[in-house]
Amino acid sequence: MRATPLAVPKGVPSRKKQLDSDDDLDTERPTRKQALSGPQPRLPPCPLPPSPPRAPVCAPAVTAASRLGPYVLLEPEEGSRTYRALHCPTSTEYICKVYPACEALAVLEPYSRLPRHGHVARPAEVLVGPQHLYAFFPRPHGDMHSLVRRRRHLPELEAAALFRQMAATLAHCHQHGLVLRDLKLQRFVFTDRERTKVVLENLEDACVLTGSDDSLCDKHACPAYVGPEILSSRASYSGKAADVWSLGVALFTMLAGHYPFQDSEPILLFGKIRRGAFALPEGLSAPARCLVRCLLRREPTERLTASGILLHPWLRENVIPPAPTRSHLWEADQVVPEGPGLEEVEEEGERDVGLYG
Q: Which of 182, 205, 243, 352 is catalytic?
């Protein structure tokens, strides 16, 4: 078995999916690759309706301790088709993502479309067998979700440094015709032990656009990160604007230590998301509050673009030190408080937007 670079033909169709019911919102992966994701950490959890088990797509699961060229697959992550792998010549550990061979072109197409970027992880090597494709990624040093869960929330200066990298990643993908869709904190991983540099772990579920139109019609997402337009009865929605909403949820969670919209019952959770009312934690600086509100706007056309996020004052190189926080108020995971009515939130948001011109 050898590394086989697969060139993706230009005629490969976009991976857009058909509109599904609201009950099919999935925290793991869309239907075709449900088995590929790892277990969801709890921050608390993304609540979701139960989904029926799916049959394997093209090939049976891979057994651990398999020898693949210079690599040995070690134990898999629980409930996942992601394996720890050891590169025998160098004793270096990798993460191996295993896909059915019949999905090879679709899996590799986003990497073919996207120019290299410092904050998007790419396979170090790809091996193709008769039944499976094996993509080997450098082993990360944890992910953003786990960091926020452990620390409860991040100070503004640290959050701004990390979020700037996340926004740059999204802007790069959007610029080159990729919509990420399943965007959440868990997908951003650290490449250094100090946890100062983040990269997008892979391009799974990225939708390759065929033109300037970014309309999508699927309804697959992690419930805590899903935008209100996806929960509506609209036949389609802007994929780029939905990514920006998810990034806004990630920023709120980094600063507050809990999701902006939260409930143990999916129906109640989706109702809160549709209303779009949330309460920011006390002590945040005015620019930070402004940016969160610019991302979490119910109307997709009113949100900042990914490239526009990078121009926001909160993400400039010399970030103003934040106001003193009352962190003791946020030491436990909380359901989002009722807070002011939606009209008050909208009016307050309009005042903060003045900070950003």
A: 182
